[in-house]
Amino acid sequence: MAKQLLLFIQSDNPGLYVNILTHCVQVEGVRDIYFAVNEGAIGKLSEAKDQIKKIKEKFEELLANHAAEYQNPYNSMPMLNQVEERIIKILFTNPEISIKNIKKRFPDLNDLLIDVSGCNKKVSSDVISSYISSGIKHICCFELDDKVYSKEWRIKGFSKMYHDICKDIIYYEYIDFSKSGTTIKSFNRMRSQGQLIRILLALSIFLGVILCVLIQQQQSIFAQYAAMALALVTALGLFNDIFGIVERLK
């Protein structure tokens, strides 16, 4: 099955999106392209439409001399009169609330790439953390090699566009955060710690209730046992907090 791409539109650099789209179509096998726009700001929808139009215009500019690289990605772009059908509104300041809609719109998440290359750090980190922890995989980012920014690169007359960064050697990386070992370990640890906290909280409440009942019934010995158990659970909770802090400091 052909893959789908949900491209977050926040940057005003059409060249970046041309690179992303070209990679995704040529390498990842993407055929259907959707656009995530910010629903939390006035005028953002019209701005996003203008930006999508600029992306198409950038493709058309490049097609004149580099049709081999850009023709298929350009053809995969929706027509301008179809763009609105491919727009998905997401509150960038709180992307977590869009998760249910994303899962409904894209039932086969394994074939969905979500690209946050054009987002600022706050939005991209929120999307990565909330989506991956909710089971939405393949959050991706397009990053150019440092050599592309070098003086030597400019002297040679190379651009930062796909046809130049893929000539003989690939000078970019397309990162899938769900495949990063560090990222997976981090989110797995977050999940396990979250489950432990919920268990400890439930135990604390349960033991607290028992302790109150035993005190009221003047069952001092059993109350002491319950108090000891409650203290142990509290200590485990504190240990978990300390462990989490130490892990974050590594």
Give a verbal description of the structure.
The protein is of the alpha/beta class. The chain folds into two domains: 3-179, Rossmann fold; 186-249. It has nine helices and six strands, in the order βαβααβαβαβααβαα. The protein has helices at residues 14-26, 44-63, 67-76, 99-105, 121-133, 151-155, 162-165, 181-216, 220-249, and strands at 3-8, 30-38, 87-90, 112-115, 139-144, 172-176. The protein has a six-stranded mixed beta sheet with strand order 3-2-1-4-5-6, sandwiched between helices. Helix 5 (121-133) links the parallel strand 4 (112-115) and strand 5. It is elongated and about 90 Å long.
List the keywords.
250 residues, alpha/beta, Rossmann fold, 2 domains, 6-stranded mixed β-sheet, 9 helices, 6 strands, elongated, disordered C terminus
